[in-house]
Amino acid sequence: MDSSQGKIWLNFLSLLPSTILTVLTIAIAFLRFYDQEDFTFLATIEQPRVWSNRLTVAALVVALVAFGVEWDRRNREAAREAESERRRSAEETRAENERIERRQREIQRDRATAEERERAAEERERAARRARIQNRGAILQIRYQLEPNEANRQALRDFLAFLQEYGE
Asked: What are the boundaries of the region Disordered (predicted)?
């Protein structure tokens, strides 16, 4: 509430210099171009020319004040715009960083999934290789049991040597 009230007063005060300048300009013109024949109350003012000069000086001072107020307003506006641009830029940077982090997490997740698939494929390949070796051993045993000759016996010995050599 105080901030709102303060802004109302600031707005009023920012209008004051230009309003006073307008009134002074009218008074200067009135004193310069009219005399007591046009308006009788001008007879109460002694030396209207001197008062016109004084009002001209006052108008110049008020014009400088109005210039200062406008300068300040524009500087504050430029500062607000710069702050807004800085915030927008920071927000864009933050959003871009979040997008990059999200993409990196996706890449890591994809890599982990690919590695897991690769490990599973390798495990399946090893299991298939073990199954082939076991099948070969079972076939050689059955062949030897059906025909216990020297060729089958040698094939069975070679298979045992293979198992001993590779540890399976």
From this structure: 75-123
